[in-house]
Amino acid sequence: MRAVVLGAALVLLLGAGAQEPAPPRVVTMTARKFEYSPAEIHVKRGEHVVLELTSLDRKHGFKLPELGIRSDVPPGGTARVELTPANAGRFPFACDVFCGDGHEDMTGTLVVDP
Amino acid sequence: MRIDRRELMKLLGLGGVVLGSGLPGFSLAASKGKPPEDFMFLQLSDSHWGFSGPPNPQADRTLKEAVQAVNASKEKPDFIVFTGDLTHTTDDDALRRRRMGEFKAIVSELRVPKLHFLPGEHDASLDKGQAYQENFGALHQSFVHKGVHFIALDNVSDPRGAVGDTQIDWLKAELGKLDRDAPIVVLAHRPLFDLAPQWDWATADGAKVLSVLEPYRHLTVFYGHIHQENHRTTGNIAHHSAKSLIFPLPAPLSVPKKAPVAWDAEHPGKGLGYREVEVKDEGRALALEEYDVHGARV
Q1: Is the ipTM of this complex over 0.90?
Q2: pTM
Q3: pLDDT above 60: residue B53
Q4: Residue A97's closest chain B neighbor by CA?
Q5: Does B255 touch chain A if contact means CB atoms closer than 8 Å?
């Protein structure tokens, strides 16, 4: 019995040593006419992040051209946008699904800190 | 050394029509002995009829002033193209139709033989172009004027700002009928290239559209959407955006957040206007002139 317990502990230790990648940090966001909340998101350079966007009213879009990212944000659903920014800087994003008078104001910024 | 037809004519001191049919760009009209005809058209854009707000305290007058200026001009265009955002958007379907009716009544005063309309996202994105089609007809179209092929694309009735595969197939079929040297003018509301995607100044599938247009050697694009003049080239295609008739917007990505340029009370209508396009040399030479809303050359 003692030998079995020691073996299990060893397996656990070996498992910990394999360094499974840390799960991405999840940032929840909402989209509604005509704003994102939060409209400014801070992440660290190289950080693995998932943006979870939920629309509170109608279909919106999420476009972050400088990182080559776009997604629909459907009403009643959640869009997941995964990113690991390689460079620090300020990267604007915007709704790219026309949503009415104020669509042009539906913008935000991803701030990647060094 | 390769000498093109225009250079050859220049060297020979000839202007116009009679050179040989074996040369690239020789038109059907010329081959029938019919002299090519120069002409002029106007581009008006982004009148946003129904808008009200500080960026244009005279929003109920600007379009009417432009109509008066065009009517007062001695130079008469063959036609006018309106490159979208004829009306300002609204969630109210009845109000949208009322704005379209008012817009049509105002532009019906234009003493011009023909008007061609294109939708903008403010006209057509919220109802996929339903009200627009009731009032102005097809969302995309083509026509030929004096040997020049005009193709008006719809990159707005899909709220994502895409042209879509069905329309791209139609475009391929339209262009497939033409010689690679045919004179072609493409009209659209949004830029077909990535002018500033961060500001939604692009077409979602614009790269696909441009790959279809690219083989044509005498093809020019006129568009609206960005409320200012902008002149760019992609490959051998020139792209020209027009001023608006409601409020100007800042130069692409020149400020952190896109917002209308403030109204200048000392210079009402500053930054607004319309464009004249002179079409010469069988449609292969275009000359652009810009006018303010009072018809003064700027």
Answers
A1: no
A2: 0.87
A3: yes
A4: B160
A5: no
